């Protein structure tokens, strides 16, 4: 398989190109984001999406087993010998008719993509398998990331899988315990900074530049290449058909950026004939994207994004010492690094942005638990957003919708327990206290 990828700056006034043997994470000429571009003529891409199904027959090969590398012709930036896998991407697209019925949707309309089934329990593994392959390709010995939790868990897992040293930066007091426990158990050097995610993000970039450490945040364009495969698996789960809507939570906006790129490329290659619409859901306490798009009219505009609007907002955040707050800690981010690429995805997918309150998120999370297999709070923002979009007619009850459930229920059990114990939630299901007495106990059996 010939390699035919380059890194290219997304700024149309710059457009600098670099080969994939370098690790930079930002354009050295103008500081903008980098993209991976392929020369498809030099790669043998299957003639139709369903050809990828042949890989199931050879799944004893770890690269064919991987739900990311199964599609490797579509992220062909390194040779097989560099590809790292721990068996990521064995995820399920569940047609959930019970939840659909509860929400007033038609049978067969609602699909839940359980990315919590990944080895470290979140979608982040899709990106890490790709980024670590690039890290191995460039000979990195040490890596780092800033994290609200799941990135650190995934980085720690992949770092020890390929024998790399790793340091993770987390905001003190902000991380869910399930995630912190993983970073420690997988052997990461864990540094808790007195600050929030945005502070960690700033520091980690400085540390990586100064000490020449490989950076694994979603600034890293190779991570996004791996995350494209979530969309391929949704198409696969629908019998190689494209849904009408993809709904995803928006934090650092890596997923939304990757999804738009995935569909753009599939269309360009003639592997799909239409692109689904994308709905990105912010938490109300961390609603930068929603504010900029819906209230300031910010657009991709062919790559000429009005960054003055963005800088004005960030200057205001700084002046007010604003720190985002939401129960959905995985999307508690106010300066999303992939903002520009996300605007491009909105352009490609005729996308929309919504925001939902913590209360809506908690109720939606309980619904995913009651009718499905559960998820962590950030993931449930998708269902909360869907409820709103059904209510106002943005999404019709017979449209085919796929919600990306980004993380596993057990990542953040504290939030689940406090929701159910505090009986005020729409779907609270508190435990019942009983004396250790058979007659008493029988009274509580319903
Ligand atoms: C990282 C993360 C998000 C945010 O994804 P982005 O790609 O940064 O927008 C959402 N949900 C979970 C569970 C996450 O771990
Ligand atoms: Zn540039």
TrEMBL record:
The modification N6-(pyridoxal phosphate)lysine is found at residue 124. Pyridoxal 5'-phosphate binds at residues 150, 251-255, 406. It catalyses: O-phospho-L-homoserine + H2O = L-threonine + phosphate. Pfam families: PALP. It is an enzyme of class 4 (lyase). Residues 85-407 form the Tryptophan synthase beta chain-like PALP domain. Keywords: Amino-acid biosynthesis, Lyase, Pyridoxal phosphate, Threonine biosynthesis. It comes from the Bacteria. Gene3D superfamilies: 3.40.50.1100. Its cofactor is pyridoxal 5'-phosphate. One of its GO terms (molecular function) is threonine deaminase activity. Catalyzes the gamma-elimination of phosphate from L-phosphohomoserine and the beta-addition of water to produce L-threonine. This is Threonine synthase. It comes from Limihaloglobus sulfuriphilus. The lineage of its organism: Bacteria, Pseudomonadati, Planctomycetota, Phycisphaerae, Sedimentisphaerales. The gene is thrC.
């Amino acid at each position: 398989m010939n390699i035919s990828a380059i890194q290219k700056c997304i700024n149309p006034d710059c457009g600098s190109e670099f080969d994939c043997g370098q690790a930079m994470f930002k354009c050295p000429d103008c500081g903008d984001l980098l993209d991976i571009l392929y020369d498809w003529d030099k790669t043998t891409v299957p003639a139709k999406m369903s050809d990828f199904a042949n890989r199931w027959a050879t799944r004893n090969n770890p690269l064919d087993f991987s739900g990311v590398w199964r599609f490797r012709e579509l992220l062909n930036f390194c040779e097989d010998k560099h590809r790292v896998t721990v068996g990521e991407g064995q995820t399920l697209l569940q047609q959930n008719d019970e939840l659909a019925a509860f929400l007033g949707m038609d049978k067969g309309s609602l699909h839940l993509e359980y990315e919590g089934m990944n080895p470290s329990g979140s979608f982040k593994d899709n990106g890490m398998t790709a980024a670590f392959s690039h890290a191995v390709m460039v000979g990195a010995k040490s890596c780092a990331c800033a994290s609200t939790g799941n990135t650190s868990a995934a980085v720690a897992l992949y770092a020890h899988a390929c024998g790399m040293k790793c340091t993770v930066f987390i905001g003190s007091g902000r991380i869910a315990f399930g995630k912190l426990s993983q970073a420690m158990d997988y052997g990461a050097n864990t540094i808790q900074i007195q600050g929030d995610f945005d502070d960690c993000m700033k520091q980690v970039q400085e540390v990586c530049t100064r000490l020449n450490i490989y950076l694994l945040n979603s600034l890293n364009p190779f991570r996004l290449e791996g995350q494209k495969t979530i969309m391929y698996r949704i198409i696969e789960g629908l019998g190689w058909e494209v849904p009408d809507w993809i709904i995803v939570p928006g934090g650092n906006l890596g997923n939304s950026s990757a999804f738009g790129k995935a569909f753009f490329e599939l269309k360009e290659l003639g592997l799909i004939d239409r692109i689904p619409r994308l709905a990105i859901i912010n938490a109300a306490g961390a609603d930068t994207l929603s504010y900029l798009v819906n209230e300031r009219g910010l657009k991709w505009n062919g790559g000429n994004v009005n960054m003055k609007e963005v800088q004005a907002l960030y200057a205001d955040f700084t002046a007010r010492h604003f720190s985002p707050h939401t129960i959905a800690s995985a999307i508690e981010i106010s300066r999303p690094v992939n903002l520009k690429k996300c605007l491009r995805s909105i352009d490609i997918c005729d996308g929309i942005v919504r925001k939902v309150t913590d209360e809506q998120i908690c109720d939606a999370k309980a619904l995913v638990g009651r009718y499905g297999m559960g998820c962590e709070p950030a993931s449930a923002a998708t269902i909360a957003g869907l409820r709103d979009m059904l209510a106002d007619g943005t999404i019709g009850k017979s449209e085919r919708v796929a919600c990306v459930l980004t993380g596993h229920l057990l990542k953040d059990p504290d939030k689940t327990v406090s929701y159910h114990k505090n009986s005020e939630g729409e779907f609270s299901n508190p435990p019942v206290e009983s004396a250790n007495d058979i007659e008493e106990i029988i009274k509580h059996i319903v």
